[in-house]
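Incident log, structure service

09:12 report received: a user says their structure output differs between two submissions of the same chain.
09:20 pulled the input from the user's history:
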Amino acid sequence: MKKILVILLLLLPFAEHYTQGKRDVRDKVGFCWDAGEMERFVNWLNQNSSDNINFKGRLIAAISVHDDYLYAGKVYHPLFKLIDAKEVVILGVTHSTVRKELGAFKNKLILENHNAWTGIYNDVNISPLREIIKKKLSKDYYTVNNRAHQIEHSIEAVIPFLQFYNKEIRITPLMVPAMSRDTMELISEDLSEIISDYIKENKLTLGKDIFILISNDANHYGVDFNNYPYGLDEAAHNAAINNDLRIINNYLVGVIGREKIIGLYGELIDGGNQNTQPLWCGRYPLLFGLMTVKNVVDKLNLGSIHGALIKYSDTYTEKLLPFEGSSMGTTAPYSLDHWVGFFTLGFYIDRESR
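09:34 re-ran on a clean worker, output below:
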């Protein structure tokens, strides 16, 4: 018995390197995991939201909110009805829940080994791309940790909407923790080479067959976040929202080049203005994702990337959507003392730039 116990203990560090069972739902409150209710919810959104944007080219990547559906449903909806790709690379956050339990992950992507992820209709399968990344990407650039993915909600948040529009969707889940800009550029360069080779070898079309989705919520404002440089009244709320919109319009809208990515890194991480630097929880996957999208597009010689804001809002502005008969709830309050901004934004290849 002692020998068996010793062997098991020795094998524990290697357990994460073997495929494990299905990744179950983390947040059963804020998101919708019942197919019938999801269908009612999307029908309600179709009838009660009118935000549409006419992209001037093929949508190839996007930024998505990951907050509770009853707060952010009208922000999710206009993006996801535009995504019809067969598989999606999802770049998620490493929230404090993960860091508190498992310690700080830095300068490495976090992959996982689950057979599938829970969906609303059926299990969501994993793209073969995940194992290709593990095989080809330097071991210095990633780690495998199922537990990190099991207690993180920023990737699962988008799955019900993705699967609603494509029941057979496949995903490649990647968590992006804190990284220096130099490390981010090195890993992104190698990962984008792997993704672009995968696209070429399988004769895929970016945007049509494979899509890159970045999970991010914007400013976390208020006393609970120790982040209220403008104060805690209506004027402060408006000032913080306008700062988010300034950053979005300056760095994520229009032609996306290296100078915008570097500028955004300064705004969100380097603290170009310490007094007004917003607390975006997805700042690292956002920046890493932008670099990777640009690198993939460059390697495929597709042309110029353009960003277009679809919708911005926040929990205090939206409050609770009046969707009746819902089993969904909220995982955090909203008030002038505690609110979260969020947005959806699409990236497309300008037809005229090709």
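09:41 both user submissions now match this output. Likely a transient worker issue. Closing.
09:42 reviewer note: The radius of gyration is 20 Å. Confidence is low (pLDDT under 50) at residues 1-17.
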